[in-house]
Design goal:
The complex is a heterodimer of chains A (206) and B (646). Chain A is 40% helix and 18% strand. Chain A is built from eight helices and six strands. In chain A, strand 4, helix 2 and strand 5 form a beta-alpha-beta unit. In chain B, the strands form six sheets. A seven-stranded mixed beta sheet of chain B has the order 3-2-4-5-7-6-12, with helices on both faces. In chain B, strands 16-15-17-18-20-19 form a six-stranded parallel beta sheet, sandwiched between helices. Classes of the chains: A alpha/beta (206), B alpha/beta (646).
């Protein structure tokens, strides 16, 4: 079941990941879903040079009645959606609190320092423990693995949006997804995007 | 179709700040839009180009910002409305013409939009364009939210026509690249005929020739326009106040800082004590309005990015009016309450308020904060910037670095801005050693190439992108040839203005509106200037390195063009040329003696190190299939297969 109203006003959502994962599209898609439902939205994004292999994030503020700062204040995130596992931890360090919900994709993207053997990437179980220590609720989903089964890893971001909705914390659902997805993808990819959304929604709702 | 014209007047639409500015221009019936791509400004022209046919616009990606402003000015002289968007340092490029244009005045509405980048989120400077408004004596507007970004743009055209001068509208990254709700107004339907009248009396600004001379007469005229602007600004609805009648503290702010200040006041529950005067018109400041608000309290906090622009104006006003408004205490940049570099955010404003009001506020419980920050700082790896998988620049700098090492005279590369600025970093093998304005790599390298008379033996190379070549490299190349420099220029031609989103440039067969355009040949231009020219594909490492050697050896000015399309370009993205694989039986890992050349030195994110097997591996989700790493591996363990061939 979807929520009938906002967790708080404004409700603060952060979508994070690594440049190239479709972070911007995911944040605009989710924002548009909330916008068609009548909410006032403010989105703050980082892109441009910062996206080349770097950590990226979008801040989404959802409100009944007004525009908020495109940057969320420290410690004030309600929902963190992370397209890459360790990026969720980076976000908690700035915006975390004991009530935050974290949804993370399980597929790591190794920073070049890790590939070069200069830095260590923690194992998934350790990442889960770290997140659980600093968030109220943690869900890790195999979005990239599921996307690969659908034939394209980039669908991981749609699966993550589906999973975000599946959490039941936001007052929007598949109807809003259907309403806005044509703005983002060509008609021939509509079916596979709907499938990806549904896979994500079911994983989180289970 | 674009939502900018699909949605109707009265519709509420979620728009990026730059889209809101574009819509504002459409509502003002803009005819001509010209700019040069630069983050965070590019989406204004991009959005207008999408509706060029439907709205009968002429939209141009000009060769540089000065020419774009000249393009907009010609339209204005012919009584059309024109917009000219650029990033902050673009105003520096346009400023020579802008100074004269400020003196001559305009006819049709002309709005110069500058998108600044406080904190240099996507720049190598955080230069501020607001100071140009004061320097050039032009009215300046700063939207405080997304609705204002649209409404102010529309108004800026009317103001420009009323005052007959350029109006500057200043945005910032957190406005241009942020998104919010905008209620649309009506599109202005007008189709003026372009006509340039020049046969009137030569001092008549409406009918005579357009020029900035006689200087003292025109300058005086310009200053009367500024005085009129100030009077108009006194009444402007874009200057707003929220808070108590007699606040304990008055915040004066503008632009995105409005949103940060409002958030900080709310976080601290200071709505009954702190007032906020948001200025939409920031040069010249509306003095009477300010005096009225300054009179309401003794303590003032000024919140702005980056330099103390409002602060200086307000302090001068307060000094001049001290007998009228009484002595004031200011908290701002000069006393260190607000930082003088970097971008602001709600937390910085909150901290300033806490300090000034003598409060305490803990956004995170200290124990939580210590733990979570330790975890983020030591528990997980940092992510350094790197070239994308399959980026031609990685291959190009691999070869450039190699020939400089082989030459062994401590040669170096002078770069400039673009994705290839990252040649300063390990991902570009730290090959570049200078990085300044567009085209400055060639200017500097050409000048290093003349220092042999002072004993300099190091060879200098310049790199530039294809769009940058046209923007600002050509004059420096001419200078190098004419002054017999010994220098090599490497043009990293990836077929578009890649970093900002593949905008067209004069080397491509297409214009901003998608129409056919005659492409200019970089190689032919360089030869005509007097340089010798060679060309290769950077993905052919051996061929490229063989060709690059002459850049260090031969006398005169040599140009080498490295031609390979950007990995993110729409025609290439998602299409792999090769399917890559590591042959585990051949990869010797740490035992090889190559020092893991592929993963430690070449460092493409598509290559990963399998800790379990102690061998390199391809990450098929990341790999772009360019095939270059196959040439890197000394053990021939990385194999490439033509995609689709098993």
């Amino acid at each position: 079941m979807n929520a009938t109203k906002l967790l708080e006003d404004p409700c603060n959502i952060i979508i994070t990941g690594v440049g190239g994962q479709g972070n911007v599209m995911a944040s605009r898609l989710l924002s548009n879903m909330l916008s068609v439902k009548g909410y006032r939205i403010t989105i703050g994004e980082t892109f441009g040079a910062s996206q080349r292999g770097g950590a990226v994030m979008s801040h989404i503020r959802v409100s009944e009645n007004q525009t908020w700062s495109p940057q969320i204040p420290k410690g004030k995130a309600h929902i963190v959606v992370s397209l890459e596992p360790i990026e969720a931890i980076r976000i908690l360090a700035l915006y975390g609190n004991t009530n935050v919900t974290v949804l993370a994709n399980s597929r790591p993207i190794a920073p070049v320092g890790v590939i070069a053997g200069e830095l260590n990437y923690p194992p998934m179980e350790e990442i889960r423990k770290m997140l659980e220590q600093y968030a109220a609720r943690v869900m890790i989903v195999d979005a990239t693995e599921e996307a690969l089964k659908l034939g394209n890893p980039i669908l991981g971001n749609i699966i993550m949006i589906g999973a975000t909705i599946g959490l039941g914390l936001l007052p929007v659902g598949v109807d809003e997804f259907r309403a806005v997805i044509p703005e983002f993808v060509p008609a021939k990819f509509m079916e596979v995007n709907l499938e990806a959304f549904e896979i994500g929604r079911r994983m989180a709702a289970a | 179709m674009s939502k900018l014209i699909e949605k109707k007047a009265g519709d509420r639409v979620l728009l990026m700040g730059n889209e809101a500015i574009a819509r504002g221009a459409l509502e003002a019936g803009v005819n001509v839009a010209a700019g040069y791509p630069g983050t965070p400004s590019s989406e204004i022209i991009e959005n207008l180009s999408r509706v060029a046919t439907a709205r009968n616009l002429y939209v141009e990606w000009s060769v540089n910002e000065k020419v774009s402003l000249e393009t907009a000015a010609a339209a204005s002289f012919a009584r059309l409305r024109a917009i000219c968007p650029m990033k902050q340092n673009g105003v520096n490029v346009a400023s020579d013409f802008l100074l004269h244009l400020a003196g001559s005045g305009v006819r049709g509405g002309l709005v110069l939009v500058s998108c600044d980048d406080p904190g240099a989120l996507s720049s190598i400077n955080e230069g501020e364009s607001r100071h140009f408004a004061r320097l050039m004596e032009l009215p300046l507007l700063e939207p405080g939210d997304f609705q204002e970004a649209k409404d102010m743009t529309r108004w800026a055209f009317e103001l420009s026509e009323e005052l007959k001068c350029v109006v500057m509208l200043r945005s910032v990254t957190r406005m241009s690249h942020a998104s919010g709700d905008v209620v649309f107004g009506e599109l202005l339907e007008r189709s003026p005929k372009a006509y340039f009248q020049f046969d009137g009396f030569f001092l008549d600004t409406n009918t005579g020739p357009v020029m900035s001379a006689p200087v003292l007469y025109r300058h005086g005229l310009q200053q009367t326009k500024v005085a009129r602007a100030r009077a108009i600004f006194e009444e402007s609805l874009f200057n707003t106040y929220e808070g108590p009648v007699a606040p304990e503290l008055l915040i004066v702010t503008s632009s995105a800082c409005t949103l940060y200040s409002r958030e900080a006041i709310r976080l601290l529950g200071l709505g009954e004590k702190v007032g906020m005067l948001k200025l939409g018109t920031t040069w010249p400041i509306p003095s009477n309005l300010l005096k009225k608000h300054l009179s309401s309290t003794d303590r003032i906090l000024i919140v702005e990015e980056v330099l103390p622009f409002l602060e200086e104006q307000i302090k001068i006003l307060a000094a001049e009016s001290v007998h009228e408004i009484g002595p004031k205490t200011f908290y701002a940049k000069n006393d260190g309450t607000i930082p003088m570099n970097g971008e602001l955010n709600p937390d910085i404003v909150t901290n300033a308020l806490v300090k000034v009001m003598g409060l305490s506020y803990t956004p995170m419980p200290p124990e939580y904060e210590r733990g979570v920050q330790r975890m983020a700082n030591v528990g997980i790896p940092q992510r350094e910037q790197t070239f994308c998988p399959g980026c031609p620049h990685r291959a190009s700098f691999w070869s450039i670095h190699r020939i400089i090492q082989l030459d062994n005279r401590k040669g170096f590369v002078c770069g400039d801005i673009g994705c290839y600025s990252m040649a300063l970093l390990p991902c570009g093998f730290s090959t570049a050693k200078t990085c300044h304005a567009m085209g400055s790599g060639m200017g500097l390298a050409g000048a290093f190439g003349k220092l042999d008379r002072f004993g300099m033996e190091q060879p200098a190379l310049a790199v530039c992108g294809d769009s940058t070549f046209f923007h600002a490299v050509m004059p420096a190349l001419v200078n190098a040839v004419h002054h017999r420099s010994k220098v090599g220029l490497i043009v990293l031609d990836n077929s578009g203005t890649a970093m900002t989103g593949f905008q067209s440039h004069p080397g491509l067969p297409v214009d901003a509106m998608g129409g056919e355009a005659p492409p200019l040949d970089i190689a032919a231009i360089c030869r005509a200037i007097g340089a010798t020219v060679t060309i290769s594909d950077p993905f052919d490492l051996a061929g490229t390195q063989a060709a690059l050697g002459r850049l260090l050896e031969e006398d005169g000015v040599k140009v080498h063009i490295l031609r390979q399309i950007c990995a993110l370009s729409p025609e290439k993205k998602g299409k792999k040329k090769f399917s890559m694989q590591v042959d585990e039986s051949r990869c010797l890992g740490e035992e090889c003696g190559c020092n893991r050349l592929c993963t430690r030195i070449f460092r493409c994110p598509g290559l990963i190190w399998d800790e379990g097997k102690k061998k390199s591996r391809i990450d098929e989700v990341i790999c772009a299939g360019c095939g270059v790493c196959a040439e890197i591996c000394p053990a021939a363990a990385i194999v490439r297969m033509e995609e689709g061939v098993q």
